[in-house]
């Protein structure tokens, strides 16, 4: 029984070997089957299309490192106006609504204020005092010419005239602070006007509320903010270790949470000359065009600052494969009407950069056609 079982197993094993040999013999004798050399993969053009394999010629590209940091969007301080009231009074009319576009000099609000009458009367009184003091000085000077008065009286009269003249200059300068807006001495109202052209991005008053004049105390409230948003700043933090690598003119790419799929491009236009003693960071300012007004002041932003830019032979990061400790790419080494030939090639690249392109040290030459997408599928066929 045991002998028959062993014989049966030997017979089955012999049949399997015989069948395998027959298949190999048939494959070897088939005239249309060509086996690719070691390290190569051959695909039909249809297989290449179905596998979404993309091929590009290796070329010199702009390669750079980048510094990733956080910051916030702010106004360009040359394109924003903060409007305060120079007089104390009550708001009687709002002339510009929130979000309205205004030009320089357009009215924003009307304030009824007793400061208007006070300023006008102070000027009139000072003018009258100055005229009276001047007349007295001239009279005393004429009396002095005929020796009808003393030098002390003339000097005292001159001092009074100079004081009246200085007081007139003071009240006129104070009144001139109100000329930036519109003054109506009859109704005792003052009209706030826009200092620049832009959009009303903030309004902190309503009709009927009392406002404090900015010259009356140090606690005046900002009533309007007028800003132009077609260009904004991003103020970001830069660590001390990266300070020497960032320069004015460095390209910047900014992203915000509101527009995850959009990148806003700009440049560095200022780097702080000192560090914050607490955070040990320096401020860096980036200027960005914002024609569509998507970036809003006080938005949090992520800034990617490009540094160490150079033009050199580079390949897309997606073209690189790792096989153990070896870095490889796939090249297109031949093509005919029915098939495309790919070969695996070891390559040495600099992976330390954050750029989407990797600098090639050796292994790939300019013009060679490399697989930039789908290389992993070719690797599985080896």
Verbal overview:
This protein is an alpha+beta fold. The chain contains five helices and 23 strands. The protein has helices at 2-29, 45-50, 115-145, 151-176, 375-380, and strands at 40-44, 54-57, 59-75, 80-83, 89-94, 101-102, 107-112, 182-184, 189-193, 198-203, 210-211, 224-227, 231-239, 251-256, 259-271, 281-289, 300-316, 321-323, 326-335, 339-346, 348-350, 357-362, 369-373. The chain has a six-stranded antiparallel beta barrel with strand order 3-13-16-15-14-17. It is elongated, with a radius of gyration of 42 Å. Mean pLDDT is 83; it is low at 1-6 and 11-31.
List the helices and strands and how they pair.
Elements: H1 2-29, E1 40-44, H2 45-50, E2 54-57, E3 59-75, E4 80-83, E5 89-94, E6 101-102, E7 107-112, H3 115-145, H4 151-176, E8 182-184, E9 189-193, E10 198-203, E11 210-211, E12 224-227, E13 231-239, E14 251-256, E15 259-271, E16 281-289, E17 300-316, E18 321-323, E19 326-335, E20 339-346, E21 348-350, E22 357-362, E23 369-373, H5 375-380
Antiparallel strand pairs: 1-20, 2-23, 3-13, 3-17, 4-12, 5-7, 5-11, 6-10, 7-9, 8-9, 10-12, 13-16, 14-15, 14-17, 15-16, 17-22, 18-19, 19-20, 21-22
């Amino acid at each position: 029984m045991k002998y028959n079982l062993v014989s049966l197993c030997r017979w089955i094993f012999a049949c399997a070997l015989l069948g395998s040999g027959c298949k190999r013999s048939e494959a070897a004798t088939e005239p249309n089957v060509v086996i690719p050399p070691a390290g190569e993969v051959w695909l039909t053009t249809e297989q290449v299309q179905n596998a979404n394999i993309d091929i590009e010629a290796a070329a010199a590209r702009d390669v750079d490192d980048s510094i990733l940091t956080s910051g916030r969007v702010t106004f360009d301080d040359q394109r924003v106006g903060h409007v305060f009231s120079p007089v104390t009074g009550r708001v009687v009319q709002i002339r510009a609504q929130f979000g309205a576009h205004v030009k320089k000099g357009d009215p924003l609000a009307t304030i009824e204020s007793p400061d208007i009458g006070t300023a006008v009367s102070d000027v009139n009184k000072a003018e009258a005092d100055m005229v009276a003091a001047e007349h007295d000085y001239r009279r005393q000077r004429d009396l002095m010419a005929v020796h009808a008065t003393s030098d002390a009286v003339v000097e005292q009269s001159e001092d009074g005239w100079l004081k009246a003249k200085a007081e007139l200059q003071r009240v006129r300068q104070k009144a001139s602070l109100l000329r930036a807006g519109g003054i109506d001495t009859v109704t005792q109202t003052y009209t706030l006007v826009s200092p620049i052209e832009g959009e009303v991005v903030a309004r902190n008053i309503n009709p009927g509320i009392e406002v404090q004049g900015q010259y009356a105390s140090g606690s005046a409230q900002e009533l309007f903010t007028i800003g132009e948003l077609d260009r904004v700043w991003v103020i970001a933090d830069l660590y001390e270790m990266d300070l020497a690598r960032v320069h004015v003119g460095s390209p910047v790419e900014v992203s915000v949470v509101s527009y995850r799929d959009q990148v806003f491009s700009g440049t560095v236009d200022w780097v702080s000359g000192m560090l914050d003693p607490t955070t040990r960071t320096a401020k860096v300012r980036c200027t960005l065009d914002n024609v569509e007004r998507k970036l809003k002041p006080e938005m949090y932003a992520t800034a990617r600052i490009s540094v160490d830019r150079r033009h050199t032979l580079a390949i897309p990061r997606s073209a690189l494969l790792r096989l153990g400790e070896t870095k490889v790419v796939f090249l297109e080494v031949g093509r005919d009407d029915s098939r495309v030939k790919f070969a695996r090639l070891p390559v040495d690249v600099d992976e330390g950069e954050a750029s989407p392109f990797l600098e090639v040290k050796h292994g790939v030459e300019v013009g060679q056609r490399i697989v930039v997408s789908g290389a992993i599928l070719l690797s599985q066929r080896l």
